Amino acid sequence: xxxxxxxxxxxxxxxxxxxxxxxxxxxxxxxxxxxxxxxxxxxxxxxxxxxxxxxxxxxxxxxxxxxxxxxxxxxxxxxxxxxxxxxxxx
Length: 90
Known about the structure:
The chain is built from four helices and no strands. The protein is mainly α. The protein has one domain (2-81): PDCD5, DNA-binding domain (Helicase, Ruva Protein, domain 3, Orthogonal Bundle). The chain has helices at 2-26, 29-41, 43-58, 68-82. Helices cover 77% and strands 0% of the residues.
C-alpha cells in the first residue's frame, strides 16, 4: 500500500515535470513567469490556462510561442468563465 502511494506520487511528479517542460516550450520566458506567479495566487485559474495551452499545443494550433500579452488575454477570457458561479462580496 505504501509502495503504491509512492509510485503514484512519483508518476504525478513526472507528469508535472513533463507539463512544465511543455509549457516552457509553448510560453516565452515572461509568460512562463507570469503563469507561475498567477499559480501562487489563483491555482484554479492557472490550471485552466495550463490545460487550455496544452490542448491547443497538442492539437497543433500553436504556430508561435505565447507571449506575455497573449497570456494575459487568455487569462481574461478564462477568468470570466470561472467567476460566473461565484458570489463576490465587498
